[in-house]
Amino acid sequence: MNKQKLRRLTMAALCGAVAFVLMYFSFSVPVLSPFAEFDLSALPELIGGFILGPAGAIEIIVVKIGLKLLFKGSSSLFTGEILNLILSLAYVMPALLYYRRNRTKKGAVTGLVLGTLICVVVAVFANIYVTFPMYITLYGMNWDGIIAACSAVNPWITSIPTMVAFSVIPFNLLSRSITSLLTFLLYKKLSVPIKRLIEGQGGIENEVQHG
């Protein structure tokens, strides 16, 4: 393994570790749903991904989830981790792929908006057809129980469509928009010292651009 590849893997691991730590600083958003919990773990996924490219972003996401399972285990029989993986990929990958083809501020903004919107759409289908059905199967729950739990904190939720409209969509739109804004504001400030630390004067950036 050459030094450049080792440094890239090391940076991916470090970003994944930071993402894992940020998961500890999560907080619930009970006004939307008892299941809604927000953290900024996607921030190092995006920033690291912009530096290392899509492959690096995938490595960061895998490290984050792996560390979470190693140190905290799973409180949801892996359903939460599966959803986290799906939504992280749905959010980060479109943003990175678009930015790689349009390396401007406008391209970054468009990529972040695209990633946010795709993630919201994927979140709807992932929750309705993956996560909640897994909860129902694994915990012996039913849709009526899930709707009742949501309705207890958000009276606008009375059915699956209203749960999507007043919980799943607004939560994911809000959380991803906040992360996108922070990424846009912090990327340039953080990427320069990180790239100098790992590769020297823009070495990673040059590799990503021509790789």
The major β-sheet equals: 2 strands, antiparallel
What is the number of strand segments? 2
Number of helices: 8
The spatial strand order of the largest sheet comes to 1-2
Please provide a written account of the structure.
The structure is a single chain. With 211 residues, the chain is mainly α. It has one domain (3-23, 34-210): Arp2/3 complex 21 kDa subunit ARPC3, CATH 1.10.1760. The chain is built from 8 helices and 2 strands. It has helices at 3-23, 42-52, 54-71, 79-101, 105-139, 143-153, 160-198, 203-210; strands spanning 27-28, 37-38. Strands 1-2 form a two-stranded antiparallel sheet. The chain is globular, with a radius of gyration of 18 Å.
Brief descriptors of the model:
211 residues, mainly alpha, Arp2/3 complex 21 kDa subunit ARPC3, 8 helices, globular, disordered C terminus
Provide a concise account of the structure shown.
This protein is mainly α and 211 residues long. Helices cover 79% and strands 2% of the residues. It has one domain: Orthogonal Bundle (Arp2/3 complex 21 kDa subunit ARPC3), CATH 1.10.1760.
